[in-house]
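Board notes, transcribed. Complex of a protein with coenzyme A.
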Amino acid sequence: MDPVVVRPCSPDDLSRLERSAVPADALAHHRERCAMQQRGEARYLLGWSGGTVVGRVTLLHASKYAGVRERGDLWEMNALEALPQGRGVGTLLITAAEELARVDGTGVLGLAVEPSNTGALRLYGRLSYRDWGHGMVLDEWTERDSAGRGCASTGRRATTCSSP
Ligand SMILES: CC(C)(COP(=O)(O)OP(=O)(O)OC[C@H]1O[C@@H](n2cnc3c(N)ncnc32)[C@H](O)[C@@H]1OP(=O)(O)O)[C@@H](O)C(=O)NCCC(=O)NCCS
């Protein structure tokens, strides 16, 4: 794999993705997250390797979960994904998110993870993320099919926090 560069998605990046053979569900995600960035709600970080997107994470400027927001301000990583997995891309994305949160954010970075996602939990633990200690949050999100059509999904997640 060529070296990976992580940067916020620019309008040019989105145009490039729209012209390329990106699957409809991934393109819908890119568009949605770029729109959030344009509205000032988040940064949308992409990992690029040789002109291909190999990972993404949305850095929300406030937690997605009301119960977390009530307990204070933090920036939160959402929809983290590495493709391929296990090659260091996830770690690079998290490191880039931490740096942005340190420079522009609130000083605390969080994320929510399904308790069954043991591989991801191992990674977060190694990067010093700790359970926030207030139980699970109920997550609601849009699951997209291969045509990009969304349907609502829910699930329980534990949240973890770290000081960037
Ligand atoms: C979780 C994820 C973002 C980690 O990114 P990554 O690039 O695979 O991780 P890195 O290569 O930087 O680090 C490897 C570590 O990630 C963890 N990991 C999680 N899922 C993994 C997978 N499928 N393959 C390999 N490692 C994985 C392991 O803890 C591994 O550490 P180990 O060597 O101690 O086993 C990525 O595996 C992924 O996209 N998974 C599917 C989507 C997902 O679960 N997202 C997280 C939602 S909270």
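Residues 4-162 form a domain with the Aminopeptidase fold (CATH 3.40.630.30). The mean pLDDT is 92.
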